[in-house]
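Thread: "does anyone have the structure for this chain?"

Original post by V.I.:
We have the sequence but no experimental structure in hand. Need at least a predicted one for the grant figures.
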Amino acid sequence: MKLHRSLLLALAMSSASVEANALAGRSPGATPEDRHVINFEDVELSALISDVSMVTGYTFIVHPDARSRRITISSSAALTRDQIFDVFLSALRVHGFTAVPAGPSTYRIIPETAAMGEAGLRPFSSNGLVTEVFSLRYSDATDVARMVKPLIDEQGQVIANPNTDTIVVVDYASNIGRVRELVSAFDKDPAVVQTIALRNMPASELAEILTSLGGQSSDNGTEAKFKAIASESGNTVVVSGTPQAVARAARVAEELDSVDRMSASLKVIPLNNANAEELVPILQQMADAMDSRLGGGEGAGQRVTTIAHHASTNALVISAPPETLAGLERVVTDLDRRPAQVLVEAIIVEMSDDTARELGLQFLLSSTDSSTVPFVSTNFSRSAPNLLALAGALSKDIPITGTTTGTTTTGNPFAQAAINSLLGLTGLTVGVGGENDGTLFGAVLTAVEQDGSSRILSKPFNMTLDNGTSSLLVGQEVPIATGEVLGDGNTNPFRTVERRKIGIGLTVTPRIANDGTIRLDIRQEVSNIAGVVGTATPDLIFSTREIETSVVADDGEIIVLGGLVEQTTTIDQEKVPVLGDVPVAGRLFRSEGKASARTNLMVFIRPTIVRDRNSASRLTANSYRYLQAQEVWNESGKKGPSLDDLITSMLGSTPGE
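Reply from O.Q.:
Generated one for you, tokens below.
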């Protein structure tokens, strides 16, 4: 008790307020600035524990073996509460004891041997026990544990876990730092990288072999881990791993690459879709560039790539170095794909309406002898029949002979003209005429109204490959005279003739873009014979409607290419001057005709991409169903379908849907 009272007196007299940094284990009832000078000489450990508890405010649970120990501590400088606690822990360690946390501000003082199994993951002071787990990235856990073991305290422990590449260390916090530095220095990436250049063997083939060997065990039983990556451009293999594993891979590569191979590899590549003859110049150009980059060519004494094609089997025959051959095979695979096709459907709609109206009056007054009756007549070119021809026929006694084959006139052109004029009559014709006392008279009134309409609907369509050109023509070849040549003395004449194709034609070149749109270069033509130039010449007049353009459309979209809307009105009037202008009565002296024509021409087109067999089958079925629908309409005898019905039947939809 005397020593105890002396310690308390010394602590009280040496208290001072200075600034210091607090470590761990502050006293709840003291400030970290309080300092004390401690001196103990041969005192019982239990007495020291009691005094330290009063200074730090901690509660200690003391092991029975620690009570009888005696201890000496001397300090010439004032210490903070935390420093006193660290000195206390060091004194316990000298005697084989340590303090283990047992709760808030509570510690158990037990032998070190028992404390090793209860060490925490975080130290409460530099002299406390701590457990730390080290995760290894590159090194073997058993090897690292063997190296760390000499640094561990006699009472410490180190446990290796090879399955998880970790080691567990239990030791004093002051020593854990050295262990941590050693583990960090030892657990570094030992991998090296080596590039292996090949002379004969393809890089991809060697890389595949080395990769299969990368996970196998080496001769000494350790796992030889490495990675192998092929570089086709330089025919090299890059190997990464431990020095031993990389050295082993290099030896294997050298042995495999030293095999005496053919100076060039030979391969026959059959094609499914591409044309072998068209691919030869493309592949030869690429092969020359690859051989030049690899140092080949005749000047360097190296292998030269040769490419040929076999037409009957549509196959390529390639003789090339392995690395060049591998590159050419990849190019052929990309080019020999099934090409897409495009079905191009055109709809040509032409509708026309024609209307004609004619009204005219002709009259004749003449004498049949030498009387003084004047000759007066009105005759218009638009009016029929020809009144003068009728009058001429009546003025003569024309015998008409009837036979079993028909009625004929003999020897009178007026009679023939009159009959032809009567046979060509259309519309309403009212006439009166005759001869009375040597006077010939007659009058003819004609009235004609004509209405006509037509509707022409054509659907040329054809299918072609992407970037291919296809043509379709449904029509005739018409002979056209281009010249006449006479021989010597105007004998042996002959005529030069050329033939011209007329009808419905469609020429298209589709190009499918990456976004699915289709560019179309189109030429569409509809031509026919409109008539002849005149009766005196056999030259023909051709009617042609043609569109040549380039458009862009989506898959299955109906677009209009072009068209023509035309309306023509013609008014003809023939009259007798002055008399024809008289109001009301003037209509007796004039002939009038009015004709109007209206034509609507539109051309629509729809491209459809066909990429596979199912798409082709679906489009074929649609065309067949259209033919079936036409057959049903024809057999039923009903009125034909409307324009919308026809287009819907052809295309499955109408424009704008």
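V.I.: this helps a lot. The chain is about 25% helix and 40% strand.
O.Q.: and The radius of gyration is 58 Å.
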